[in-house]
Amino acid sequence: MESVAAAARGRRPEEVKSAARVLEVLELLGAEGARLSLAEMAGAMAVPKSSLHAILRTMEARRWVDLDPSGTRYSLGLKALLTGTAYLEGDDVASLAGPVLDALAEETGESVHLGRLDGTDVVYLAKRESRHALRMYSAVGRRLPAHATALGKAMLSQYDAAEVRMRLNWPLERLTPDTVTDPEALLGQLAEARLRGWAMDDGENSPDIRCVAVALGTGQGGGDAISCSAPKSRMDDARAEEVARAVTEAAHSLGTLLKRLGQH
Amino acid sequence: MESVAAAARGRRPEEVKSAARVLEVLELLGAEGARLSLAEMAGAMAVPKSSLHAILRTMEARRWVDLDPSGTRYSLGLKALLTGTAYLEGDDVASLAGPVLDALAEETGESVHLGRLDGTDVVYLAKRESRHALRMYSAVGRRLPAHATALGKAMLSQYDAAEVRMRLNWPLERLTPDTVTDPEALLGQLAEARLRGWAMDDGENSPDIRCVAVALGTGQGGGDAISCSAPKSRMDDARAEEVARAVTEAAHSLGTLLKRLGQH
DNA sequence: CAACGTCATTCGGTCTTCTGAACGGTTAAT
DNA sequence: ATTAACCGTTCAGAAGACCGAATGACGTTG
User: For residue B91, is pLDDT > 80?
Assistant: First the structure.
């Protein structure tokens, strides 16, 4: 008894338990397709059913989660809609990026993304879909490990090797056979990206997709980057360089817009 | 002492306090522009600063809220992005509506919305912007009182008068000089909308904007509707009828898609 | 320069939530 | 029909969050 209490007292309770659990529920329902039962969620979160039950009732009363007609499966509720779009509206980069992304998507004809580095992950802030039938899957708000994406490598290449070693989670997670997991190989790619000004991903997070990305100059909050993705069949090396020029130009023009905004 | 405890015991604690507060924080930061200090939020929510402090620390650690460099103003964090888009992805209506809205926006050249009834409010699920320079402001996730929007009236017109009287909050809130707040006038408009198949809003939530809406046949979850909005200068009565035909057609084709999905 | 206003933050006693086991309901398989 | 395996839900003891006042750190104003 004593030892457990002492251990718990040792580290300050920096977290409010039920607050953290509310957030975990939202992350879980957001990540998985949704449609989870209370017992499934309790299992996934390693939380007693009875505790989660009270929390879900609170969330349901406020319409942050919905309950199936059957009363047994939870999904995100209508109130959850508000937060995502509100984040984007309040963000300078995301709200200025719209026209720039439109133009880049128009020029290249391929899928275009704006991403932000968050810890070891890249988060998609905005996208424009390719007009081709064959295109990559992605969604605003979704995360991928930074080391396996062009966006992530473009942003990581702004830091020096020591900093990169500290920021990433070693060993690196493997998503496809082509994911770069060797530290030296990754640092080599980052150095190369720094020199030439753009980064590339060659089937490292989804097979058959190649992607080219350029970081925005503004080091604001860890960094943002713009990318352009296409199936390998439409992105050979020559085409990649061509696309890289267009992406660089887009990143530069967005960077200029942001600087102008910063000076009022 | 006893009386307070007894009163508290009388009603079951249906809500987990800190869970509810987390949600309130998200709603507050989502609704206001954001950038609120701890003291401001504590004031707005009628919660002690010290209690809110612990909750905000939890939310910040998990990146659901961000703290200014100055360390004194909170805004929504990156994790908040996930929920909104995930809700839309998991929703059959919203995910099927894309092409239908595209076509309607193309055909009319005006702003087009998909909305859902939630209590007394309409929530925007998706939008397509007008190609005209002069256009209405709106955002996915935002709410407006149902009685002051074409979308809301289209959905309310599916219920009978008694049900409508129960569902709305009386007296009706006034948003503009033209907002209909008289019960009989509103019920009259709903009856008219039911007969002709579409509802109209004439500057009732934003001055100078007219809007035409049609409910989807599927009574699924309170109801959804599609609308088309334009400044009065581009939407006289004749044009409104023309637009109503196009919106009706779009609503019908989306309804058909949904029925097909329902039958597998 | 000092006094003030505002801000986030800490601290211990009290009250709430959390918890694990038991309950009643529904569906599926035997 | 009976069993079994889920589901959500309840309850009283135990653990932890909540609260108000006091503190420290700013930046601003007189």
Answer: yes
Residue A173: pLDDT over 70? yes
Mark which of B61, B81, B101 sits at the end of a domain.
B81
Query: Residue B42: which domain range?
Result: 2-81
Beta bridge partners of A116: A123, A224
Contact B142 A82 (CB under 8 A): yes
pLDDT tens string B247-258: 999 999 998 888
- Cβ atoms of A90 and B30 closer than 8 Å: no
- Contact of A22 with chain B, judged by CB distance below 8 Å, is answered with yes
Looking at residue B171, the DSSP 8-state letter turns out to be S
pLDDT at B201 over 80: yes
Round to whole Å and give the CA distance between B83 and A79.
9
Chain B 212-241, residues with CB within 8 Å of chain A CB atoms: 221
> Do B57 and B127 share a domain, yes or no?
no
The band of A248, judged by pLDDT with boundaries at 50, 70 and 90, is very high
Domain boundary among B21, B54, B81: B81
Chain A contact for B153, CB < 8 A?
no
Which tokens sit at B125? 């699920």
Residue A185 lies in a domain: yes
Dihedral sign, Cα of residue B255, residue B261, residue B262, residue B264: positive
Q: Which of A17, A22, A70 to mutate to test binding with chain B, by most B CBs within 10 Å of its CB?
A: A22
Task: Collect all residues with Cβ–Cβ distance below 8 Å to B146 and sequence separation of at least 6.
Answer: B117, B120, B121, B122, B152, B153, B155, B156, B168
Contact A82 B33 (CB under 8 A): no
Quick one: which of B124, B96, B113 has its CA closest to B212? B113
Interface test with A, best of B11, B15, B17, B22 (most A CBs within 10 A): B22
- Per the document, the length of chain A is 264
Residues A185/A194, Cβ–Cβ less than 8 Å: no
* Nearest of B63, B61, B76 to residue B30 by alpha carbon: B76
Q: Is the pLDDT of residue A101 over 60?
A: yes
Q: Measure the CA–CA gap between A130 and B166, rounded to whole angstroms.
A: 47
Model pLDDT for residues B27-71, shown as the tens digit of each residue = 999 886 678 888 888 888 888 888 899 899 899 989 999 888 777
Same domain, A251 and A179: yes
In angstroms, rounded to a whole number, what is the distance separating the alpha carbons of residues A97 and A227? 12
